[in-house]
Amino acid sequence: xxxxxxxxxxxxxVPEDWELVETSEGTPVLQLSNGQFLDIAIEPLFATNxxxxxxxxDNEDTLNxxxxxxxxxxxxxxxxxH
Length: 82
Description:
single chain
């Protein structure tokens, strides 16, 4: 099998009251204003035609097979102040 390296970087405009918090394991996540928490992680999208609509899979086996291929994942968060 060959290695594939994927880097994902998002720049987002978010509400002022969102905060960075850590889970008990030290993983950073976002605390949203409605009391929910958000962790941005990889979610594979599939399509039968690259020009058509892309969607996540409803098949847990397909998703698990894909996620089993991931050797490591790193997400970092940083609020940018000007």
